[in-house]
Amino acid sequence: MKYKNIIIIIIFVCFAYFIRLNTKAQELLENKANQDNYWLAKVIAIEETGEIALAEGELVMPWQKVRLKFLNGPQKGKEIIVKHGEQTQLKKSQFVKQRQKVVVLVSQTVEQEMRYYIVDHYRLPAVAIILAIFLALAIFIGRWKGLGSVAGLALSILVLINFTMPRILAGDDPLLISLLTSIIIALLSIYLAHGLNRRTTIAVISTLITLLTAVGLAVIYASLTNLSGLGSEEAFYLQVGVLDSLNTRGLLLGAIIIGSLGVLDDITTAQAATIDELKLANPNFNQAELFRRAMSVGKEHISALVNTLALAYVGASFPLLLLFTANTNQPLWFLLNTELVTEEVIRTLVGSTALILAVPITTFLAAKFLSSKTRF
Q1: Which CATH code is given to the segment(s) 2-22+125-370?
Q2: Where in the sequence of the chain do the CATH 2.40.50 domains occur?
Q3: How far is CA 92 from CA 89, 158, 203, 238, 265, in A?
Q4: DSSP labels for 70-105?
Q5: pLDDT (tens digit per residue) in 249-290
Q6: For the whole model, what pTM was predicted?
Q7: Ranges of CATH 1.20.1640 domains, the chain
């Protein structure tokens, strides 16, 4: 069908544009120098465990004397002794154990002396096992649709890593790049998961319309609340060094848009599928009847997803909420007024508003086109 050829052309053009823009950004990242080295090491033995005071009269902190063997890097095979926790605050939950693999930061002092620090546990093998379980379940239960979803997820991550981040680091407008990223991800993930058909195309169109609406809401809300994008500690650090000219407000808006996309494709595909199934079940349903019945389902979907979205943001900010709850030195209104809290509120409200608007938009388009034999 003609619309399938148009979709393929759009995807091809997006990828061509993505590859062209990405070349310069990749060169920028590859040329970035790093004076410190991170090496992988294995804990051979715990030679001593004790406590040490960082200074006289200060809090006593636990520490370990650890024998390590490097598994990679210029000193592969070499064994060293590291005093883990001697110069940094360490909790017992951060203790390493024999035969564990750890990440070691190797730095060089002005006097050319090598310093070694255990900075983290090596978690990638465990993460790989957990990821394999997830992929196996998705493919086993979802079959071809599950495989398509996994492929869409993989491509989405590749777009974010190889296009979005490098382009923002290269100085492009974060909001524009995030919007382009969302369009590419929407096309790839929805079509791969649900196939090339009319109801999927309606879901894609509805997603893009709602996404553009979310962009407008995010810009207006950020302006009304005077958000600068510097509410978080991470955003503040981005203003140091080569990234001092980064558009932090644009970065915040871009993050809101990409975050909104995560729930939009769920509700648009569900609404389009609902109307398609209703029409198949009763071909006599007209556009108005399809719209009414599908909206009834959509309202139930909204009530569940709005709560889900809000709780997802709350869960991501749980340590922050605990910190504010424990803070008795400042009034509650002052804490709620801070940019850090306002950012999270606006993020949640934009995503929730877009989600609500997606239901009537998708339902209207699906009822209009699926109630007839119109091809597009």
Answers
A1: 1.20.1640
A2: 37-122
A3: 10, 37, 50, 31, 43
A4: ESSSTTTT-EEEEEETSSS---GGG---TT-EEEEE
A5: 888 898 889 888 877 888 899 899 999 899 888 888 888 899
A6: 0.73
A7: 2-22+125-370
